[in-house]
Design goal:
Elements lengths: L11 H7 L2 E4 L2 E6 L2 E12 L4 E12 L5 E2 L1 H4 L6 H20 L7 E6 L1 H6 L5 H10 L6 E6 L6 H14 L2 E7 L6 H7 L3 E4 L1 H9 L1 H16 L3 E5 L4 H10 L3 E3 L20 H15 L3 H20 L4 H4 L1 H4 L4 E8 L4 E7 L1 H6 L19 H8 L5 E2 L3 E3 L4 E12 L2 E10 L11
Parallel strand pairs: 4-6, 6-7, 7-8, 8-9, 9-10, 10-11
Antiparallel strand pairs: 1-2, 2-3, 3-4, 3-11, 4-5, 12-13, 12-17, 14-16, 15-16, 16-17
Organism: Marinobacter aromaticivorans
Protein name: EAL domain-containing protein
Pfam families: EAL
């Protein structure tokens, strides 16, 4: 049931903009510069909850011949800052009016606000506060999206965002990862939600390194106290990337397109059960083969350690390990993490060494104690440990490290072996 609204708005600006809206049966439209404006909603889903948690409001414009007008052209029409502000408020009013008529008393409404509008208006947007009072839409159900672009008044932007937060709204940064985005804005504005630009997802789809960067960005944003939404998901592969990256929310054509058919909005469901089932099946196949690697190299580690304990030199002790095509190097460290002698590099890896990184090759007396694989081995002796893939500083390539702490003549030693992270699965096959 649509909340009742006062017949005469108390705010003259609300009154002015209200006159530009027209009831179209159950929902509302608006007029601006001869164009008819309509609301379209696109669902936003939580992966973990497997359901809709919000809707982004998008403006749709039609000319007198009912032909679509692109939003970018609509927002080029205002001839002054005052008219730009008027259009922004008209869109927000229209979206809130339409959302108030939907049978949903739980989920968020995402509203876009340009920094140019925010910083050109009054410091406290009393219009918006009065609008929420009039429509009786609880402010905690509103997410104010600040579009990621430069602004001339960062202090005013921060103050205005603080105002929306004081009203009780959530705040979000939109299009993070686009041309002007940086973490400084995250630190300055402390948004509740960060929406990642679809370009990050496009690059992650095409480039494995970009996928790792995406995962890192999501992790950093979570550490900054932000929930993360990935928009622009258009294929099942991109949905898998989103799940793997650890984002909280997703949005895109793959799940549901924006729609002006507001009466059918509640039918916009997505089959997350099947999606997560497919992800789990794929993940079992493509995940880092930790247990397989440990099992595969366990005997070779035992043999190498037995030889070291018998007095053999590293080159002789690790001969079998180094002969495997996926092994890049072996080295030995003492209980303080300091490397004993230099690293043994496999013949395969030696042929691929990049001369640009030659200053990093010699690691004699290097201290690896800060590395987790070294501390973990020392904490749990006689157990073969393995890391997640990481960037090896000595060769600048992705690897995983196997490490095992053992006793030799009363002293603790840690044998380490780096495995190429991108080695083909066939290399681990028996025979």
């Amino acid at each position: 049931m649509q909340p009742a609204t006062p017949e005469t708005p108390r705010d003259p600006e609300v009154d002015l903009i209200s006159s530009m809206l027209h009831s179209n049966g159950e929902f509302w439209t608006a007029n601006f510069r001869g164009l008819k404006l309509r609301t379209a909603f696109q669902p936003i889903y939580s992966i973990s909850h497997k359901r809709t948690v919000g809707y982004e409001a998008l403006i749709r414009a039609l000319d007198p011949d009912d032909a679509n007008v692109l939003p970018i052209h609509l927002f080029e029409l205002p001839a002054s800052d005052a008219e730009t502000l008027l259009l922004d408020r008209l869109c927000r009013y229209l979206h809130i009016r339409n959302y108030s008529g939907i049978q949903d008393q739980l989920n968020w409404l995402f509203l876009n606000v340009s920094p140019r509008v925010v910083t050109s208006g009054s410091q406290a947007d009393s219009f918006f506060g009065n609008l929420l009072k009039q429509t009786r839409l609880p402010p905690h159900r509103i997410v104010i999206e600040i579009v990621e672009q430069p602004t001339d008044d960062a202090d005013r932007l921060r103050e205005t965002v603080a105002y929306y937060r004081k009203l009780g709204c959530l705040t979000a940064i939109d299009d993070f990862g686009a041309g002007h985005s940086n973490f400084e804005r995250i630190w300055n504005l402390s948004p509740d939600i960060v929406k990642l630009d679809r370009k990050l997802l496009t690059r992650a789809t095409e480039d494995h390194k970009a996928r790792q960067i995406l995962n890192g960005i999501v992790s950093l944003l979570h550490q900054s106290g932000c929930l993360v939404l990935l928009e622009g998901v258009e294929t099942s592969d991109q949905a898998m990337i989103a799940i793997d990256a650890g984002v909280d929310f997703v949005q895109g054509f793959y799940f549901c397109r924006p729609s002006t058919d507001l009466a059918r909005l509640g039918n916009a469901t997505a089959d997350f059960d099947q999606l997560l089932k497919d992800y789990k099946a794929r993940h079992q196949i493509t995940r880092d083969p930790t247990s397989q690697l440990v099992d595969f190299f366990w005997k070779d580690f035992q043999d190498a350690i037995a030889r070291l304990q018998a007095g053999a030199r590293m080159a002789q002790a690790c001969n079998t390990l180094l002969s495997h095509p996926t092994v890049s190097r072996c080295y030995l460290a003492d209980e303080n993490g300091v490397q004993i002698d230099d690293t043994l590099v496999s013949e395969t890896r030696a042929r691929d060494l990049d001369p640009r990184f030659k200053p990093l090759e010699s690691t004699a007396k290097a201290d690896w104690y800060r590395q987790q694989y070294l501390r973990q081995a020392l904490a749990q002796p006689d157990t073969l440990h393995i890391t997640a893939p990481y960037l090896c500083v000595t060769g600048v390539y992705m690897c995983v490290t196997l490490s095992l702490c053992f006793s030799n003549k009363g002293e603790r030693r840690v044998l380490c072996c780096d495995i190429l992270a991108n080695a083909p699965a066939s290399a681990m096959s028996p025979g």
